[in-house]
Amino acid sequence: MTTRSQPQDAERHEAMERYVVPELDVIYRVALALTRNPADAEDLVQETLLRAYRAIERFDGKHARAWLLTILRNANSNRVRKHRLEFPTSEAASHAPIELADKRGPEVVVVDEAFDSIVAEAFNALPHKFRDVVGLVDIDGLSYAECAMALRIPVGTVMSRLHRARARMKKRLELEGTFGRRWTNENLA
Amino acid sequence: MRIWRKSNPSDIATCAEVMRSLQAFLDGEIRDELSARRIAAHLEVCQRCGMEVRTFRELKTALKAVARDIDPATIERLKSFARSLGEEQALDA
User: Fold this and answer.
1) ipTM, two decimals
2) CA distance A85 to chain B (A)
């Protein structure tokens, strides 16, 4: 039996710990946006990790997230191709509706909860291609370049989709008469 | 007050420039320090653009409070998987 005493394995292991493990949360979030399904997202990240492990000796240690996003994107292309071959007529799974995180501070009152709910509704009402971009940038905290890399679209497209998506959400919130309530509430406190 | 023309191009952006770059400004994606400073200078004096920024900032803040339904156990499983790769590779060899 081969042992893990080879220096190569130890270096790979260390590189995985240093560059890959800290990015796992973001990578999983992107996978979730790409697959729209937690089980598929987990499989996709596992495939990404396998590929990253095999290639980590060639990784120069710079921009780990961008490197992992490229691997994830390629792994996802394979997954989609394979899925199309296996299930040629099936539809992609629908987006699971997002839920509000319970991480708001005690200073936020009922008005804010209503506002956040309406924002969540406005977000869920966006077409997928807009929702993906807003989700990755605003919820998951990706930069424009990272988002473009993950979705395989130009940075200019990320910007225009963001602009259009936010304009739609703004319009919806204005129709609800919601804007300004949080601001007013904060200033009254 | 609307700002149509630049009195001194290096000082302050116009309303049109701000509208073009507003989303990138809010997202911290304006890499050019001078442009960011010119937009910020504009927002200090233009009520209309200031209101627009505040509206979008409010929206962005609310979106940050929205989270994907992520099970922390999944992330832990993936971490364990990443850490186990070296061992599996060694056993396969």
Assistant:
1) 0.76
2) 27
